[in-house]
Amino acid sequence: MIKRLSTELAEARAEIASLRQTTQQSTNMNQPNHHEDDKHLSSEDFPALPSQTPPWHSPQRISQIKRSLAEHEQQRRLQRQEAAARLLQPPPENQGFQYVYLPIKARDPIGQVRTRLRKLDITNNRILNIHYPDRNFVALLVHNDYVNELRKQLERFKVTFKDNFDPCGSKLLRDPKYTDLSPEERANFALMYHSNRMARALDYIRAPIKHAVARFFYSKGWISKTILQGTLSSSPTNTSTTTRGMGEILSPNDHRRVY
Hints:
Layout: H1 2-30, H2 34-38, H3 59-87, E1 97-103, H4 110-119, E2 129-134, E3 137-143, H5 144-155, H6 183-202, H7 209-219, H8 225-233, H9 246-249, H10 252-255
């Protein structure tokens, strides 16, 4: 009896061992042979990664950065010197200011417009004001003695000018609510909106050039005497005149001072 049980136990153990061996072989067959694949791989199968060396590890790159900073500082220094020298010169014969009107594709923020002008080597501190008087047009306010230089620089890049642009023209009233108005009424509204733009422009022009620009605007009939006096006084309570009513920005007499 004991002999028979021992024999059956031995057979069961042998069968279990055989099953384990079969299972292990099946598992090994399902797994990929990484070692075999690795034999066929070489460094040529992997492209070289681009170098990401920081600039401070490259003396040449450091020299380029220093040279660029030095050139930028030199340009700023020359601009400051030119501005200081202009104060020590006699008044130019071509006194006054004027707007230069240019076509533009989109109504970008003013900061972006100045960035693009800077890329064209335009001296931004000579551009006193930038605004959009109409669709696809931008206006640059400059002193008369800078107009020729500005135009010459822009012409190098095939920039065209709108010399016959009328900022007070009734054609700028595109809202249908003005369609049925008389020509005189449309002209008054167009001048009113332009005067409002000029009043806002004065808020962003620094003194003392602001005072000269205000006198120029007043001589053209673009702002009222109230706004002129408020600008010349340079009082904090009077500098922001654009918040006042339209009736104070323009009076009937102001409407007659159209250039």
